[in-house]
Specification:
Strand order of the largest sheet: 3-4-5-6
Shape: globular
Length: about 260
């Protein structure tokens, strides 16, 4: 089995702007991100294209019919729930409908810390079934979860936080305007998560390997995580970072 993730921001630019950017290795990324960003902005203004990628750039079929992209994305998810999931696991039609309801609740709330008891009561299923249904949604790449321990994620281990798998899903599934903070975090966990498992941390937003990241707008500071040696602020709305502040868009160049 080989899993092909959706487009990275780098691939999106190469696909739509006919550029030829190469991926930036993570080790080089955290030690030399300022020079890496400077080299890119000399060739293209990434922020001029970033919001378009967040809205509809994750799957290349957006070029076929841009106005129908959200409809096609919603239909793809519906097919995955109706056909792909029942063909791979023993699940009833009633359970599939419960999963649809769960997805609707998650899409309106992310990112959030699932209250398993309240969710179970609202959907009308027991705790174990709910945790399993969350795992199914994660398996079909509709949501992405953070766990306190990534070394041994048990079948019934509840996630600490839940996100949409990629930002386009916010626009396709939500009934109201998506929250920009949710969009930023969804992009971050989606792009960096391709390199390996990410972990929940009570301080900061995300932990990856030995690094802690805090995601926010251009004015975000490292106040919450400055006591961590390997910590970075990931800031939206800036083209080039400095020291422990990295532009959000640049994380789209990791693969």
């Amino acid at each position: 089995m080989y899993e092909l993730p959706g487009l990275s921001f780098r691939e999106y630019l190469n696909f739509t702007q006919e550029t030829a950017f190469k991926p930036i290795p993570f080790e080089q990324f955290v030690t030399n991100h300022t020079n890496a960003a400077l080299e890119i902005v000399q060739k293209i203004r990434p922020l001029a294209h970033f919001s378009d990628f967040l809205e509809y750039g994750y799957y290349p079929y957006f070029k076929e019919a841009p106005k129908l992209y959200y409809q096609k994305l919603s239909e793809t998810i519906s097919l995955a729930l109706s056909i792909d999931l029942p063909s791979s696991v023993d699940i009833s039609f009633r359970s599939v409908e419960k999963i649809r309801l769960l997805l609707h609740i998650i899409s309106e709330s992310v990112p959030f810390k699932p209250n398993i008891s309240k969710l179970s009561e609202r959907i009308g299923i027991n705790r174990n079934s709910l945790v399993q249904f969350i795992r199914y949604l994660e398996d079909i790449r509709v949501i992405k979860c953070l766990y306190a321990d990534t070394k041994d994620i048990g079948v019934l281990q509840k996630p600490e936080k839940t996100y949409m798998h990629h930002p386009n899903l916010h626009y396709a599934l939500a009934t109201k305007k998506p929250n920009i903070g949710s969009i930023r975090e969804s992009f971050f966990i989606n792009q960096l998560g391709v390199l390996g498992p990410m972990k929940y941390t009570p301080e900061g937003d995300f932990a990856f390997n030995n690094f802690v990241f805090e995601v926010g707008g251009s004015g975000k500071t490292n106040k919450q995580i400055k006591h961590f040696a390997n910590s970075f602020v990931v800031a939206d709305g800036i083209e080039v970072g400095h020291l422990h502040k990295i532009p959000l868009w640049l994380f789209g160049f990791l693969y």
